């Protein structure tokens, strides 16, 4: 049974520009493990990674029903690619299954998160 559905659309350049101008921004929303994953990417791929994680966490917070704030922070969520390269939430507060999809153009990233009760 579906508990929640969240979507988000973000401008890749806007998110990446913030990350470049304010390096502390990365530590406020990427876990140490995600930051380690980020080091594997360069250029546009790094920008896509950062914007994708930002957007996926926003989508999760919408599906969860709280938004980002007192009940749920960016660092409560961790999104790591599995061995096949598919992103998976490896840390999150929801007790059920989490489905995530990330897609992008050269300017925008769109994410969808479905929270499923099992």
TrEMBL record:
Keyword Protein transport attached: no
Keyword annotations from UniProtKB, A to Z: Cytoplasm, Fatty acid biosynthesis, Fatty acid metabolism, Lipid biosynthesis, Lipid metabolism, Magnesium, Metal-binding, Transferase
GO biological process: fatty acid biosynthetic process
Enzyme class (EC, first level): transferase
Main localization, broad class: cytoplasm
InterPro entries per the UniProt record, alphabetical: 4-PPantetheinyl_Trfase_dom, 4-PPantetheinyl_Trfase_dom_sf, ACPS, Ppantetheine-prot_Trfase_dom
Cofactors (names): Mg(2+)
GO CC terms in record: cytoplasm
Domain of life assignment: Bacteria
Record keyword Transport present: no
Listed GO MF terms: holo-[acyl-carrier-protein] synthase activity; magnesium ion binding
Subcellular location: Cytoplasm
Residue ranges constituting the 4'-phosphopantetheinyl transferase domain according to the UniProt record: 4-104
Binding annotation for Mg(2+): 8, 58
Catalytic reaction(s) noted: apo-[ACP] + CoA = holo-[ACP] + adenosine 3',5'-bisphosphate + H(+)
EC number(s) recorded for this UniProt protein: 2.7.8.7
Function: Transfers the 4'-phosphopantetheine moiety from coenzyme A to a Ser of acyl-carrier-protein.
Similarity comment: family membership: Belongs to the P-Pant transferase superfamily. AcpS family.
Protein name: Holo-[acyl-carrier-protein] synthase
Organism: Periweissella fabalis
């Amino acid at each position: 049974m579906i508990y929640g559905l969240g979507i988000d659309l973000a401008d890749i350049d806007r998110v990446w520009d913030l990350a470049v101008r304010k390096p502390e921004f990365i530590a406020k929303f990427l876990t140490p493990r995600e930051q380690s994953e980020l080091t594997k990417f360069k250029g546009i791929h790094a920008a896509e990674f950062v914007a994708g994680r930002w957007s996926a966490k926003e989508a999760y917070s919408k599906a969860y029903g709280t938004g980002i704030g007192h009940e749920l922070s960016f660092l409560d969520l961790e999104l790591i690619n599995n061995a096949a390269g598919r992103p998976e939430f490896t840390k999150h507060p929801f007790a059920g299954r989490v489905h995530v999809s990330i897609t992008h153009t050269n300017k925008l990233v769109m994410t969808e998160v479905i929270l499923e009760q099992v």
